[in-house]
Design goal:
The chain has helices at residues 3-17, 90-103, 162-174, 195-204, 214-222, 248-270; strands at 24-28, 39-46, 64-70, 73-79, 107-116, 126-134, 179-186, 208-210, 227-236. By secondary structure, it is an alpha/beta fold.
Length: 272
């Protein structure tokens, strides 16, 4: 079955579950799932119930689509993302973005937890991503292109929406949240990076690094969907002398402690 037909099957199923019309799609990253507590939920659908969706297998990722109102703003939230390192194909990882776009969302907000490779960053800082470095071994746009979804060669000169970035930075300043623009790099994972890899990433121009998000951005831009990425720095890993042994539990705990700032930023951004 072609990708477009798979999307249509997923859409048909979801519209049978809810008539809710979201304006913004939000992807919640590691340790950032509590934003769903701020939503007046209209409907929830587990990934595994949706045709052609795969299930999230990562700790702290709930694995469901949540439809509802974030204050006055209608949203659909991926409570837990999918990752290439889980063993899914890039097409499976990004399939929900295509479905949300055809559900009618007008913009996509992506959140993630990352390691800081800019020595000026601190744990708990938010990086408003202005560009990325894609070091993943696969691309979700590889293969036969369907012009109904987007062009064969999508332009990436402005991957992250300038107006959304400016608003996010202004709101962060108003809320007295440490936030800076920066470059996100994507590695395959699931292992954390070695000291030499952190040095490489810094020399390449990366400010923070993670194991997700860039595939979703590529597909969103393929479908002409404006994107804002907010990366929550959980640990700083440059220069190598500051690196501490880190577990996924540490990342989740650090992200959870800083999450209220990110939640406030997203709420204000969508309800101005």
């Amino acid at each position: 079955m072609e990708l477009y037909d798979q999307i249509q099957e997923a859409l048909t199923f979801l519209r049978q579950q809810t008539a809710f019309q979201p304006r913004t799609g939000i992807i919640l990253g590691t340790g950032l799932g509590n934003l769903t507590a701020d939503i007046a939920v209209e409907s929830e659908v587990a990934y595994g119930a949706i045709p052609h969706f795969v299930s999230s297998t990562v700790q702290s990722h709930q694995g469901k689509l949540v439809f509802g109102m974030l204050d006055k703003h209608p949203v659909v939230v991926m409570a837990g993302r999918l990752h290439y390192y889980e063993g899914w194909t890039m097409q499976q990882v990004t399939f929900p973005v295509r479905v949300m776009k055809l559900l009618g969302i007008e913009q996509l907000i992506i959140t993630n937890a990352s390691g800081g490779v800019n020595p000026h960053l601190q744990s708990g800082d938010i990086v408003v991503v202005r560009d990325h470095i894609n070091l993943l071994p696969e691309n979700p746009l590889r293969g036969v292109n369907d012009e109904r979804l987007g062009p064969r060669f999508p332009d990436m000169s402005k991957p992250y929406d300038e107006a959304l970035r400016a608003r996010a930075l202004a709101i962060a300043q108003k809320l007295k949240i440490r936030a800076v623009e920066g470059v996100y790099s994507a590695m395959q994972g699931p292992n954390l990076e070695t000291p030499a890899e952190y040095v490489m990433l810094r020399h390449l121009g990366s400010d923070c690094t993670g194991m997700s998000s860039v595939p979703e951005v590529l597909v969103a831009r393929h479908m002409n969907l404006p994107v804002l990425m907010l990366s929550l720095v959980t640990n700083v890993a440059f220069p190598p002398g500051v690196i501490k042994e880190t577990s996924v539990e540490d990342v989740i705990a650090l992200a959870g402690a800083a999450e209220p700032k990110l939640r406030s930023l997203v709420r204000d951004l969508l309800n101005q």
